[in-house]
Amino acid sequence: MDTFKIRAVLAAAETGSLSRAAEQFSYTPSAFSHMLSAFEDELGVRIFHRSSRGVSLSEEGKQLYPELKRMAECERRLLSTVKKTVEEQKYTLRIGTYSSISRSILSPLIKRFCELHPNIELYITVADDLSGFLDRDLADIVFADGRILEKGEWIPLMEDRCLAVAPPSLLGASQTVTREALYAYPHILTDEEYLAGYFDKTRFVRTLHLRSEDDLSVIDMVKQGFGVAVLPELVLRGNTEGVSVLALDPPLSRTVGFAYNKHSDSAFPALAKFIRFIKENAVSVG
């Protein structure tokens, strides 16, 4: 038996008006009346007396009303129990991210998400290379530079501009430095994708090749006077003491966002909630 029709009958009985009851269900009065008539035909009894003043329960309707009300209440309790069961069920969600994104973007968002969803346990992997994390089922969602997230559903969040980092004495009081000018200084080179094609690496007067899981080690090298480097602004947040930071001309940036596997069934309830949360709170990102 259709409990929607039962709730419609109860609404009509309680309001005494088909039009007012129809409004509660976003029906037109005629469609609502037709639905009630079809339900009466299904039961084989007339539940209502209809008149120009509205509707009232027939004798049969008065006898059925308590039972219909109990059925509606049973449905309400059932749905409430289902909701509670789902909310109390434990889920896990695996997140892969860069250190810079974890520190600057995710940490405050994750704290709020955990407060809202205590039944979702998070496993976070912070790594410099997140290539293949989705393909190899190492994470359900990955936050990184869009250039490495070629597979999965990709959602961009922000443009993270790149900046030149130098010892304070090296480039003076400038606020901007050209790409051409940087070739005249020793350069700390990293293998980051966002730098691909921006520099002709053979033109630097001297280079130090640095491969590290920790972006902060690049900043430390700059502080020690090894040369200049180019790093994303998210990496530099809160880490500019002892160095000069300059805008690049021409500008360079990386697109930061997240990718996920739409068919990650094992984490789907948690993943869906997390993606919705991130989208709703994207205004606070960056």
The CATH superfamily label of the largest domain reads Periplasmic binding protein-like II
Pick out the low-confidence regions.
Answer: none
CATH class of the largest domain: Alpha Beta
The string of secondary-structure elements, in order, is HHHEEHEHEEEEHEEHEHEEH
| Helix proportion range | 25-40%
What would you say this structure looks like, in words?
The chain is an alpha/beta fold and 286 residues long. The chain has 3 domains: 3-82, Arc Repressor Mutant, subunit A; 91-157 and 255-284, 3-Layer(aba) Sandwich (D-Maltodextrin-Binding Protein, domain 2); 159-254, D-Maltodextrin-Binding Protein, domain 2 (3-Layer(aba) Sandwich), CATH 3.40.190.10. The protein has helices spanning 3-15, 18-24, 29-43, 59-88, 99-116, 179-182, 216-223, 233-236, 268-280; strands at 48-51, 54-57, 91-97, 120-126, 141-145, 153-166, 176-178, 187-189, 207-209, 229-232, 244-249, 253-260. The strands form 3 sheets. Strands 3, 4, 5, 6, 7, 10, 11 and 12 form an 8-stranded mixed β-sheet that branches. A hairpin with a 2-residue loop joins β1 (48-51) and β2. α1 crosses α4. The radius of gyration is 31 Å and the shape is elongated.
List strands and helices in order, with pairings.
Layout: H1 3-15, H2 18-24, H3 29-43, E1 48-51, E2 54-57, H4 59-88, E3 91-97, H5 99-116, E4 120-126, E5 141-145, E6 153-166, E7 176-178, H6 179-182, E8 187-189, E9 207-209, H7 216-223, E10 229-232, H8 233-236, E11 244-249, E12 253-260, H9 268-280
Parallel strand pairs: 3-4, 3-5, 7-11, 8-9
Antiparallel strand pairs: 1-2, 5-12, 6-10, 6-11, 6-12
Helix pairs in contact: 1-2, 1-4, 2-3
